[in-house]
Amino acid sequence: MIWILVFGLPLTVAAVIGACALLRMESLAAAGRAARLTPAPGGPAPDGGPAESRPRDDGAEPLPELLSRLLCRFGWLATVPAGVAALAGPAELSRVDWMVLGTSVQMDALARPLLGMTAVLYGLALAFIPRSGVDRGPALTAFLLLCFAGNAGVFLAADIVTFYLSFTVMSFTGYLLVVHSRSRESRRAGRIYLVMTVLGECAVLAGLLLVARTGITVLAEAPAAVADSPHRDAIIALLLIGFGVKAGTVPLHVWLPLAHPAAPTPASAVLSGAMVKAGLAGWLRFLPLGESEPLTGWGTAFMVLALAGGFLAVPVGLLQDNPKVILAYSSISQMGFLAALVGAALAVPELAGACIVAATVYAVHHGLAKGALFLGVQAWDRERLPRAVVVLGLVMAGLSVIGAPLTGGYVAKYGAKEAVGDATVPAAGGLELTEVLPWVGLGSTLLLARFAVVLWRRDRRREPAPALRGAAWACLALFTAVPVALVAAARPAFTMPGWTDPAALWGQSWPLLLGALLAVAAAALARRRELEDNRLAHPRGDTVPPGDLIAVEERAAAALLRLLRRGMTAARGVAGDVRERVAAAPSPLAGIGRVQERLGAWTGSGVLLLLVLAAAAWWTTTRGGG
Amino acid sequence: MTGTGSSVEYSVIPYVMLLTSLLPGLLIFTLREEQHRLRIGLNLAGALAKIVLVVLLIPPVVAGSTLRASFSWAPGLDIVFTTDPFSLFFVALSSGLWLLTTIYAIGYLEDSPNRSRFFGFFSLCVTATVGIALAGNLLTFLIFYELLTLATYPLVAHRGTTKALRGARTYLAYTLSGGVILLLGVVWLTLLVGPVEFTAGGVDAVAELAAERPGTATAIGALLLAGMGVKAALFPLHGWLPIAMVAPAPVSALLHAVAVVKAGAFGIVRVVHDTYGPELSASLGLLPALAGVAGFTIVYGSVRALTQDDLKKRLAFSTVSQLSYVALGAALVAPMATTGALVHIVHQGIMKITLFFCAGLFAEVLGRHRISELDGAARRMPLTALVFTIAALGMIGLPPTAGFLSKWALGAGALDAGQPWVLGVLLMSTALNAAYFLPVIYRIWLPERDHAGDTGDAAADDPGEAIGDGGAGATADGAEEATGHTAGAPDAGTSAEGSAAAGAPAAPHGRTPARRLEAPAALLLPALVTGALVLLLGIAAGWDYSPWTLARMIAETGYGGEGG
Q1: Distance (Å, rounded) from C-alpha A322 to C-alpha A381?
Q2: Domain total of chain A
Q3: ipTM of this predicted complex?
Q4: B503-521 pLDDT, tens per residue?
Q5: B415 vs A135: CB contact, 8 Å cut-off?
Q6: Domain residues for A402?
Q7: Which residue out of B380, B454, B486, B546 would a mutagenesis test of the A interface target, given it has the greatest number of A Cβ atoms within 10 Å?
Q8: Is residue B408 within 8 Å of A209, Cβ to Cβ?
Q9: What is the distance between the alpha carbons of residues A210 and A213, in angstroms, rounded to a whole number?
Q10: For a Cys staple, A216 with which of A225, A302, B498, B533, CB 3.0–4.6 Å?
Q11: pTM of the entire predicted model
Q12: Residues of B with CB below 8 A from A36's CB?
């Protein structure tokens, strides 16, 4: 069973690292206690950081540390089984009935390419952890591996509960990636990530319970079942929200520009490359694509939100000055492109098959290219690679995201445009989707030009690093076209562009050329002296803070909380008043005492007894006796 | 019992099960304070004997045979004990957790006064719980229900402080009133239809009564449910639970996970499913009312939990909320919802007992009771923190913990029963649970700010002396409260003093100056076991004898009789 390796190996490695950390913490805690229990004569025993974090004096590295260091160094190997499975894994269903509510995984046309992309991305990201200046490398390795198991599970899951299980594991371990650096920004980002994740989880859970209500458990039957479900619209709405959080759909994207940059760079790469695709996979697995009558309303909703994200992310991203924030906005824009495909498939059922395939190819392309770009930030900052190689790799990956000819993006974007056919955006006056999508490419060009400017200004500080991973990164960045083209070519429903077809070449080039022209013009403009202090010409990332809407939403949430707290204080006040009044009310005991005193005499009690007896006699006679 | 292919055998085993805790309890009362070895021996022998019995009984009972023991107390008043699957389900939970809590209590109360009294009542309390579980009719149930109230009172009041006595008195006032209401209901029903033996799917005589006099049947049902509702802490009868927090940690664990509150929840299921039958109680209007109250309690308890800073108090309100999952599941007419209710009896018990064990550990070892003091506790007590985290995630209902199964079953059952509003309640509860548990987890794992205040800036300059998982990556985050409750030497001093005063094991009497573990094994191991169970019961839910499988089986027999 290859699945035992695919999931078991990452989980085991993560567990071993965790156990090592626990062992170490136990021994530190014991040492700290011993130090406290026998305080130094000079004063209070040193506690916390200084004493405990100093390496031991005996010189030898304790076994747990050695082990976790080794596992960190070679952690990337744990993703290899998944890569092998993606290439040659069996396609039949595998079930483990005793696990949770019956766990099952299956390799299918959607899972195979996405799993492959995920394995490559996580593997490379894991390889970028050791000797990269990341704090607590082993811990990051463990979290990434947990996340990987969840992420792979999302793509491979063959039943609803397994899907939800994987999705949740991935989402919540994602939090650990975001807050890993423990900086103030990362903690804020983590907080926002967690709130959005919990809300998303709730929506997903409700949606999946409604799907399960139709009686199916197998994912392959889900779209048809959802199409026939009486709760179809509720399911679509819940899944739009739930998976939209993950996929960075406007207006649920707010966590993304904060969280992706806050994570250590290897983690950013997988967050932005692989994890956002889990949201897409959720849509493709559960939405009734091609199974129901045209859902024009929902299709339009998806397309409008998608295009809003696709375009609005550009100006906001251009105002940033952190390369990873700019890449995060680029991801929002690109995920908008993908969501538009989903919208087209919803609106025009005949296009669904082609759109699903196009979305799959696009997801693979974007995952690889965006991962290469994020890791490229680290490659630029501190890898040993020569500057020329790094620049070349980044340019190639960037061109791929833009969709320039002869790149992976060329294939993916062309295929996507062919797939949406004559789908229109009713909300935009019936504009054809194929007319709109190339403009996303223009936005990407501008964003990546800004990225290039910002990155170029950063100093390179080359440090010794494993040569192999540099080479692997260069390969990924330079040759994303190969896997994308292979995946695309294997799918008959996908329209491959001719590599020399002038119409296709021009169609894919003009956004790049126009964007480059605009970028050069903007750069020339920004050089002018009168614009020296202009915030728009020289953005510093504070005109629109990363996370844009979040500032407003945070304020709204704070206001709501204040209101709630005030309401609860008021409620407690009322409850306290009532309690006080009850306590202050004259005690009934005094009255009872008085009554008892009166009846205490034999005459009183005798009369009462007679009355009771008379009443009883009357009751038995009139009611016919017992 | 209605189940097909089931057989009823007369047996003394139910008596033996009661005696395994009754006898040690009575013997312990006679022991002198210093005979602690004998006391520990008696406690553990009783607990182990009961577990062995339960383990031996599970396969035959699952296969369909029921043991029954009865005697006539007075003419017309039969005391009946049976081991139907549901009783055994509850007995298994209470005896398993009893063993762990006993171990924990032995460690917790080491060297403290009045231990014979404590363990005597502790055993009586478990006897009463097992009696409730095994009770075959309403009368027997009532007797043990009241016995439980009385046996728990001395435990809540154990410390003897003013606060403890006040808490115990509130507890007694609530539960005794509940008992009176229940008594009224039981007497009324017995008067009308004769002795009521619990029957899966409902008692026929009760159904006849309901057909003739629906008003009376409804009134009786309301009385029974209200009587149970006090112990099950349904709003507005929940007031005693947060106040009873003054009890020592093992008692809280027992109260919240096994004995008292579960007796109420168990009783609700017995009334709804084995006395009235789900369809009948729904048509009488009992279930919609119960569901409404339970739904409100779930949200109310969670909202109240949000604002508590005392860890045990937050857990108490969480119990109020979580218990109503059981009531809510029982109030929905769908096998899946019933499964959720039954399985949550076990799952909530294991998760909550873990949380209370951990709260007790934090209090005993670190001397920290408030959530705002817990910053960086993981660094001192990584295992405890890990277990706490698992259990809290289970409470939120995240897979693959046991809590997820309950939530999933309840959600699916709510849809089956055509009550989608319940889904809303569950989701709101999920979000609220996340809102009050995740910050605690966050604080626990927070890198401790060393010597807050004076070296705040230095920490920023030296952020990454990273060590393993608990690195000292303290950042100068002045905005977050600099409480000064960091674990400097002064804090350790108070902790040591506090525990010395309580005579607790953390006291450095030179007994274990440099322990290998973060806490005394007797306290830590039970928490580790239950914490592991939270994960195991979730992951291995499909195992033949897992609570999930058993709960499904029990739930389905209840509906099978109705041809549902």
Answers
A1: 13
A2: 2
A3: 0.86
A4: 333 434 434 444 567 888 8
A5: no
A6: 289-564
A7: B380
A8: yes
A9: 5
A10: A225
A11: 0.87
A12: 489, 492
